[in-house]
Design brief:
The chain is of the alpha/beta class and 541 residues long. The chain is built from 18 helices and 14 strands.
Length: 541
């Protein structure tokens, strides 16, 4: 190309940098622009536009400045686009050739000021394609090295990417670690604890924490989707999940694995993860109905003019009749329904059956856990033996250093994987004992279990035993139990035999299903209670 003929022609400059490291090594946007501008000035070009992409990869064309540059070339008054090197434009052979085809369509040339340019001939196009292919190859090699380094960090117990909100990436003794963010750590932890109560949605937590100073790294309020991801992220329990791998992290956890499981249970109970923002989470919503018209009761705040305070009330949602004298203070009604559980008792035979079943299940699970743990522990011991042999070979000089590093990393990765399996077994042990504890507590003392239960679990207990309560004149006029409980109320004698014999027999007064159902206490106490329910002693018809 004879640049002497282009003294009055227009040119554009394109610059790109993907990392801070490139900027430190002299590839900053300013350095690229100066290099290109000097070349253009020396050869008589007039620069009419500069387009810069910062922090963008060259492996795709989804870059705002590049797109703007291509649009600018459509005016057909641009003779040349200047780049420092062609890999600034694209690190993908296909993209490079596509961009050049667009330039050719608008009669625009591409000049790399730090590389030799090739004439528009078969030989020149072949050489240009080879350079573009080399750029792509170099990009893929760099990507492979980066991923390998990130995997090594992950295997060593450190998060390989940008720290999650509440943590910071730091350097300690030349090792990149994950440490507390002094501004956000305690606020994120407070949000997780708030969700554990079951009384707050993600939106409400975000609102409250924003008022206390929690913002994103961009200084904005945490949006609902991000807060949900934080709440359900196992990273905050110390468990890292990345690239299909799982490992125990060395960073400081905010909550325990048990608390994380509780959070997931609460989240699952919130309408299958739907975000329903409630100003107040009233315990008895959905269980209360009007004894006058049969419509659902709702909970609301009303101002008590005499006391000059806001008081929560349940009342009928319809306007077809007067609600005068029908408003019930929430605390009083919830206390009255709590006392309904005093009437619920299991027989001693049933409690003994539950204890025996729980004991059998616990022993079976314990035996399975011990066998699994021994298998993984033996595998770890075998790897340790092989690692010691490898170390001896390295010391004796029969194993090259590069080979040792590769084998060592493989051993380390496998040990971490097996330790993760053991960790999951211990985690399941906690789940099993929690299930046993909750089952025994409910069987021995239904009222005590309900009284101690958190908000979400109380609602589960309510759904186990009651379909609805009818309210009239501020009192419970009728308690409607679930269908199976109604059957058991009519068939107390049959049900008592059921507790002893362990099977449902055909009722004389009511036809039950033809297939005989065996009582079976599974680890999921809630599912079991839904299957066999309970009976009421001395419950009035």
């Amino acid at each position: 190309m004879d640049l002497e003929e282009n003294k009055t022609k227009n040119g554009l400059i394109y610059c790109r940098v993907s990392t801070q490291r490139q900027a430190d090594e002299g590839w900053s946007l300013d350095a690229q622009e100066r290099f290109c501008r000097k070349y253009a000035d020396d050869n008589g070009f007039r620069i009419v536009g500069i387009f810069s992409d910062e922090g963008k990869s060259g492996t795709n064309v989804n870059r705002a400045a590049l797109q703007d540059l291509l649009i600018r070339c459509q005016d057909k008054d641009i003779d040349t686009v200047f780049v420092q090197e062609t890999d600034r434009l694209a690190r993908n052979t296909q993209d490079h050739l596509a961009i050049k085809a667009i330039f050719k369509k608008y009669n625009t040339k591409l000049v790399s000021v730090a590389q030799p340019m090739f004439v528009d001939s078969p030989e020149g196009r072949l050489a240009d394609t080879m350079v573009a292919s080399f750029n792509q190859f170099q990009s893929e090699i760099n990507s492979r090295k980066t991923k390998k380094g990130m995997k090594e960090r992950f295997d060593n117990g450190w998060w390989p990417a940008m720290a999650k909100l509440g943590y910071l990436n730091k350097q300690a003794d030349k090792v990149k670690i994950i440490a507390r963010d002094p501004e956000r750590w305690h606020l994120i932890k407070e949000g997780l604890k708030m969700y554990l109560t079951g009384n707050y949605s993600a939106v409400e937590i975000s609102d409250k924490l924003y008022k206390k100073g929690l913002t994103s790294r961009q200084g904005k309020k945490i949006c609902n989707s991000i807060m949900i991801n934080i709440i359900k992220d196992s990273f905050y329990t110390g468990i890292m999940k990345w690239g299909g791998y799982e490992n125990v992290g060395k960073h400081e956890p905010m909550i325990t694995p048990k608390e994380h499981r509780t959070i997931l249970t609460i989240m699952d109970s919130h309408n299958n993860h739907a975000c329903r923002r409630r100003i107040h989470n009233y315990l008895l919503r959905g269980f209360l109905y009007c004894g006058i018209c049969g419509q659902r009761y709702v909970g609301e705040k009303h101002k008590n003019k005499n006391k000059n305070v806001n008081i929560d009330y349940y009342h009928c949602s319809t306007k077809t009749h007067s609600n005068k004298g029908q408003h019930v203070e929430i605390d009083k009604l919830e206390k009255e329904i709590e006392e309904q559980f005093l009437r619920i008792r299991f027989t001693k035979e049933f409690i003994d059956l539950v204890i025996q079943k729980v004991k059998n299940i616990y022993e079976e699970k314990k035996k399975e856990r011990n066998i699994e743990k021994r298998i993984f522990q033996n595998k770890i011991m075998k790897i340790e033996e092989n690692r010691e042999k490898t170390e001896i070979k390295l010391i004796e000089g029969t194993l090259k250093d590069d080979d040792y590093i590769r084998i060592r990393d493989r051993f380390k990765s496998e040990i971490n994987r097996l330790q993760g399996k053991i960790y999951k077994i211990e985690e399941q042990r906690e789940i099993d004992i929690d299930v046993a504890r909750e089952t025994l507590l409910l069987a021995r003392d239904v009222y005590g279990a309900y009284k101690k239960a958190p908000y979400e679990v109380k609602r589960l207990y309510l759904s186990l035993f009651w379909n609805k309560f009818l309210i009239k004149d501020k009192k419970i006029t009728k308690s409607e139990p679930t269908e199976l409980i109604r059957i058991f109320l009519r068939e107390k004698t049959t049900f008592n035999r059921l507790l002893i014999e362990g099977r449902i027999k055909q009722s004389l007064n009511r036809k039950l299903p033809e297939n005989k159902g065996k009582i079976r206490l599974t680890p999921n106490w809630l599912r079991t209670l839904n299957e066999i329910r309970t009976f009421f002693k001395d419950n009035p018809e």
